[in-house]
Amino acid sequence: MTAPTTDGVLVDRYGRVARDLRVSLTDKCNLRCTYCMPAEGLPWLAGSQLLSDDEIVRLVGIAVRQLGITEVRFTGGEPLIRPGLVDIVSAVAALEPRPRISVTTNGLGLERLAPALRAAGLDRVNVSLDTLDRARFTQLTRRDRHADVLAGLAGAVAAGLTPVKVNTVLIRGVNDDEAPALLRFALAHGYELRFIEQMPLDAQHGWDRTTMVTADEILAALAREFTLTPDPAERGAAPAETWLVDGGPARVGVIGSVTRPFCGDCDRTRLTADGQVRACLFATEESDLRGALRAGADDAELARRWRTAMWGKRAGHGIDDPTFLQPARPMSAIGG
Ligand code: SAM
Ligand code: SF4
């Protein structure tokens, strides 16, 4: 299947245009969140399989200059453990037209890195934090690093990486009683909180719909303490539905990927740490740009392959289809 010869944008058969590129910088991580990966970790990609810093910058450059990408988000695994992160951000910030640049991180080491990242051109961060309780954090992530995440959040604000967004996944019986407390915490610090429904993307294939905490449950829990009104701001392609808290201006978001899918408005394209384009988190197909790049393909050929990969994007993730198959790679390898 070949994409039409529409130069300049990543469009699919349903007319969706990808503007937002998620780049995984590594599949490795220094936490072991139970809903993401097993305690022993995973068989990590070999160094030779990973795109080099220069290869990443070249591919992001093609996406920005030739394919209409305006937002670049670095993720993983844990992007802050990639040694070249600051240099990659700096090179991407020098691209014309300059994309907006953000990072999704677990926050470990962010306190130290935030000023250098800001100076390199990073615009903002999303920091993942699922609990306010140190013991629970240790249970959920299998590492006693709660204080480092809190310090990372404060460091991000101090460095001007704002607005700082906080991503939270609620797990039934573990931290599902914390929604209002997490919102109070976020309001007190000026962070924008977004709850994410747990998705079938864990390496252990342990996801179970019946135990997933749904968007409706999260909203009901918040409504017991706060007045939530629909945010009048245009949602656009943003995955989070947002609500004004107690009249605003503070907001809270819920990403109901499973029960309130937003596939019809999706504007994402993904590049894995080993150079594969994925049209969707849940795609079962990947398109190998690394092989083509290392075989000497020029920018026009790489752009053509990227367009073809996106043209084949499916209408939706199909989690509710009886035929749904969880992708072979977990979220930590695809880039969350
Ligand atoms: N390590 C970084 C972090 O934790 O922010 C970036 C990668 S992580 C895969 C990105 C986001 O995906 C995090 O907010 C994490 O909580 C979330 N996540 C991981 N596994 C998930 C799952 N099965 N369902 C929903 N969200 C998940
Ligand atoms: Fe690491 Fe992020 Fe997965 Fe947690 S969610 S194990 S921090 S990649």
TrEMBL record:
Record carries keyword Nuclease: no
Sites where the protein binds [4Fe-4S] cluster 1: C29, C33, C36
Residue numbers binding S-adenosyl-L-methionine: Y35, G77, S128, M199
PROSITE patterns recorded: MOAA_NIFB_PQQE (PS01305), RADICAL_SAM (PS51918)
E.C. number(s) listed in UniProt: 4.1.99.22
Keywords per UniProt: 4Fe-4S, GTP-binding, Iron, Iron-sulfur, Lyase, Metal-binding, Molybdenum cofactor biosynthesis, Nucleotide-binding, S-adenosyl-L-methionine
Binding site residues for [4Fe-4S] cluster 2: C263, C266, C280
Record-annotated Radical SAM core domain positions: 13-239
One Pfam family matching this protein: Mob_synth_C
Binding-site residues, GTP: R22, R73, T104, K165, R268, T269, R270
Signal peptide positions (record): none
Annotated pathway: Cofactor biosynthesis; molybdopterin biosynthesis
Cofactor(s) this protein requires: [4Fe-4S] cluster
Catalytic activity: GTP + AH2 + S-adenosyl-L-methionine = (8S)-3',8-cyclo-7,8-dihydroguanosine 5'-triphosphate + 5'-deoxyadenosine + L-methionine + A + H(+)
Cofactor note: Binds 2 [4Fe-4S] clusters. Binds 1 [4Fe-4S] cluster coordinated with 3 cysteines and an exchangeable S-adenosyl-L-methionine and 1 [4Fe-4S] cluster coordinated with 3 cysteines and the GTP-derived substrate.
Assembly mode: Monomer and homodimer.
Functional summary from the UniProt entry: Catalyzes the cyclization of GTP to (8S)-3',8-cyclo-7,8-dihydroguanosine 5'-triphosphate.
Homology family: Belongs to the radical SAM superfamily. MoaA family.
UniProt protein name: GTP 3',8-cyclase
Record organism: Micromonospora solifontis
Record lineage: Bacteria, Bacillati, Actinomycetota, Actinomycetes, Micromonosporales
